[in-house]
């Protein structure tokens, strides 16, 4: 279902002098307006501080003609150069396939057809087995393909005899499975399989969209004999496909099918595709893949030199329809505008983008309407692509996420959960609890993103006294971890104000702009698991999964690591003895109660949902001090994460498994005046706005920012 008014930008981060372009789909009926806003608060809960989108129409205010732009899902290989390359006199095509939804309607393996006339050929997987289609002629094997089984499939056509043939053969036969065979037919009259059209692998040309009848499953070694043979074991780290045949008909992949996939030759002897690429010569195509919507630009905005760093949005309105496209403005390198830096977790935002949770029921819809929250939910909009927390329609996990499409979950006022005790915000909307707090406290801050930090490194942080994370900085590259570690080891001060941070490894690639890759390997809380042997990223060739599996647990950076997960509910922290000693009492100056934080707009408490704890075995520094720990978590709702369970009874004698269900608020002194303060809870920032920002969680956070940033501010209440 296409949204009435929606858009996206060509980038997510800009600095002064740079241009950002916006692509919009508007159903009208009249023109739409676009105005610049700064996103300060994005929680529509009527019980809290109201949303705040600061008007900056003086910098941009435009009116533009409405037009509808579509997002077309489905991945395939496109060989444009085949358009004008004549086929051999007799046609012979073949491929290896691993179908995942063979019971579905026709799914094309390889084709070269004219979308309007139907001229040309297509080798097609159908519920009745493989079929060859040439013009209006069709021959089908008549035996069903099995799911997740490798087949050699082939077809031929001889214009001289008029004979069409098609066949399928499993590479491993199964007892009592009648799935092997071939068929032939003789057609009368002229037989032509030429068409002045590109060749497609995994789809065919369609009249009403770029491609149709998309294939679900893996394809390996497709070829047209004597014409082209594509070797998918080559250029695995790219979206290019290489022809080893006589005509050099190289192509490109559309909509991010998954590479570095086990092929028909895989034996298990080698798990790293770089060491045996011929074992990973398959590409997994899906009819719900999406990379770049390819929408045309509607307008652009060049950031003025004097513009303040921050979280901004282009607000679109057309009649009763409204949308906000967020983006970030960062300062020039080495020219900070403040002592405080907020690090936006854009890797995590992107990985979760458009997460269809299957929870958007009628009560939830009523709350969204009553609160005037953001109305578009991924449950209603599969056309804008999936999250890596979803599975494809064929059951395989989603490995890629792109920002070159509308990202519904990035919007201010977007509700992820129907949270009875709070607002149900996650990611960017949840992090406006922090940006709104900074605004209310009068704390000037710059914004940089994970993407910026990965590209520029520690130099981007060097000018700041303190760096703050948001609620959930879960996904990181080696580049961002290196930068943060170097920053804290050279005098920088880090405030980790979330939970389940620095947990999964992700990959980027300059060859695949706008995309991010994740492989859910081995342990970890996850919604799907990578297939054995498919643990290495295609983008960078690195081993995927938890950073802990690469001997880089989050404890090394921030003193604590992910330990337990529950439902979206929060509870309180209790101060430790260390909180009251002379060395650490400054953190709790003005905090009234030993037990604090049992309130907030994320699950009703500061400590909840996903919790991190200290563990010296995993690299927590010996000088790490636990200032407070959470308590009160319902054991029915919270569980210890998988990787914590292995060998627990022998490695931590005298402690029960349930004692791992806690958040440890931790303080660490580092070299050259550096320090790290960690709270270990996703719901922590949701407590900052409670009681108009005048509460114990707000006060202790103010104390730490004020001291770390050397701000010299007074508590405003």
Chart the SSEs and their pairings.
Blueprint: E1 5-9, E2 13-14, E3 19-26, E4 32-41, E5 52-55, E6 61-64, E7 76-79, E8 91-99, E9 107-113, E10 120-126, E11 129-134, E12 137-140, E13 151-158, E14 163-170, E15 181-186, E16 199-201, E17 217-224, E18 228-231, E19 240-243, E20 251-254, E21 258-261, E22 282-285, E23 299-302, E24 310-318, E25 321-329, E26 340-344, H1 346-352, H2 362-371, E27 400-402, H3 427-441, E28 445-449, H4 450-456, E29 466-469, E30 475-476, H5 478-489, E31 493-496, E32 504-505, E33 515-517, E34 545-546, H6 555-558, E35 560-575, E36 595-596, E37 607-614, E38 625-631, E39 639-640, H7 642-645, H8 648-651, E40 664-669, E41 675-678, H9 696-708
Parallel strand pairs: 2-25, 26-28, 26-29, 29-31, 30-32, 31-41
Antiparallel strand pairs: 1-3, 3-23, 4-5, 4-6, 4-24, 7-16, 7-20, 8-13, 8-17, 9-10, 9-16, 10-11, 11-12, 13-14, 14-15, 17-18, 17-22, 18-19, 19-20, 21-22, 24-25, 27-33, 32-34, 35-36, 35-37, 35-38, 35-39, 38-40, 40-41
């Amino acid at each position: 279902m296409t949204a009435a008014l929606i858009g996206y930008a060509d980038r997510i981060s800009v600095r002064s002098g740079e241009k950002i372009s916006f692509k919009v789909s508007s159903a009208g009926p009249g023109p739409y307006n676009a105005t610049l806003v700064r996103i300060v608060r994005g929680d529509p809960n009527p019980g809290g501080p109201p949303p705040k989108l600061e008007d900056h129409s003086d910098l941009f205010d435009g009116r533009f003609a409405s037009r509808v732009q579509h997002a077309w899902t489905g991945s395939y290989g496109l060989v444009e150069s085949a358009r004008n390359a004549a086929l051999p006199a007799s046609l012979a095509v073949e491929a290896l396939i691993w179908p995942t939804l063979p019971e579905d309607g026709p799914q094309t393996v390889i084709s070269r057809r004219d979308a309007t006339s139907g001229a040309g050929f297509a080798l097609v997987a159908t519920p009745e087995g493989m079929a060859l289609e040439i013009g209006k002629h069709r021959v089908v094997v008549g035996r069903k393909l099995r799911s997740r089984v490798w087949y050699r499939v082939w077809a031929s056509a001889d214009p001289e005899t008029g004979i069409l043939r098609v066949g399928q053969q499993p590479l491993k036969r199964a007892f009592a499975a009648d799935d092997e065979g071939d068929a032939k037919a003789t057609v009368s009259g002229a037989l032509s399989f030429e068409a002045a059209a590109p060749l497609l692998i995994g789809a065919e040309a369609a009249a009403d969209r770029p491609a149709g009848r998309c294939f679900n499953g893996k394809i390996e070694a497709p070829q047209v004999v004597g014409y082209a043979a594509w070797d998918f074991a080559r250029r695995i780290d790219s979206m290019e496909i290489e022809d080893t045949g006589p005509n050099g008909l190289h192509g490109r992949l559309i909509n991010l099918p998954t590479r570095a996939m086990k092929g028909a030759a895989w034996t298990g002897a080698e798990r790293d595709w770089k060491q045996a690429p011929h074992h990973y010569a398959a590409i997994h195509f899906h009819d719900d893949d999406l990379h770049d919507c390819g929408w045309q630009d509607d307008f652009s905005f060049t950031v003025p030199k004097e513009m303040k760093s921050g979280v901004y949005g282009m607000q679109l309105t057309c009649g009763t329809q409204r949308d906000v496209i967020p983006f970030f403005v960062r300062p020039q390198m080495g020219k900070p505008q403040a002592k405080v830096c907020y690090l936006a977790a854009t890797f995590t935002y992107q990985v979760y983008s458009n997460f269809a949770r299957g929870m958007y029921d009628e009560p939830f819809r009523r709350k969204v309407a009553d609160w005037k929250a953001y109305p578009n939910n991924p449950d209603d909009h599969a056309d804008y692509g999936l999250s890596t927390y979803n599975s494809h329609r064929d059951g395989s996990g989603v490995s890629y996420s792109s920002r070159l499409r509308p990202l519904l979950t990035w919007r201010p006022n977007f509700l992820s959960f129907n949270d009875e005790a709070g607002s149900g915000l996650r990611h960017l909307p949840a992090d406006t609890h922090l940006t709104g707090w900074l605004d209310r406290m009068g704390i000037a801050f710059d914004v940089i993103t994970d993407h910026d930090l990965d590209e520029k490194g520690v130099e981007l942080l060097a000018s700041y006294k303190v760096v703050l994370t948001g609620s959930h900085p879960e996904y990181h590259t080696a580049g961002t971890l290196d930068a943060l570690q170097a920053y804290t080891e050279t005098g920088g001060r880090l405030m980790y104000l979330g939970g389940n941070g620095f947990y999964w490894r992700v990959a980027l690639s300059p060859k695949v702009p706008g995309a991010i890759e994740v492989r859910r390997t081995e342990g970890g809380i996850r919604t799907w698991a990578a297939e054995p042997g498919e643990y290495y990223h295609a983008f960078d060739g690195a081993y995927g999964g938890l950073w802990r599996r690469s001997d880089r647990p989050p404890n090394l950076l921030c003193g604590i690591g992910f330990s337990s997960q529950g439902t979206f509910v929060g509870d309180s922290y209790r101060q430790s003895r260390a909180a009251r000693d002379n060395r650490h009492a400054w953190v709790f100056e003005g905090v009234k109660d030993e037990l604090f934080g049992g309130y907030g707009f994320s699950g009703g408490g500061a400590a909840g949902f996903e919790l991190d704890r200290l563990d010296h075995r995993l690299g927590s520094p010996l000088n790490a001090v636990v200032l407070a720990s959470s308590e009160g978590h319902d054991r029915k709702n919270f569980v210890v994460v998988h990787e914590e369970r292995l060998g627990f009874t022998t490695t931590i004698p005298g402690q029960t498994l349930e004692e791992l269900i806690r958040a440890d608020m931790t303080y660490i002194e580092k070299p050259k005046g550096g320090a790290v303060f960690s709270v270990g809870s996703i719901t922590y920032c949701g407590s900052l706005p409670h009681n108009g920002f005048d509460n114990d969680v707000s006060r202790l956070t103010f104390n730490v920012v004020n001291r770390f940033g050397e701000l010299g501010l007074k508590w405003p209440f």
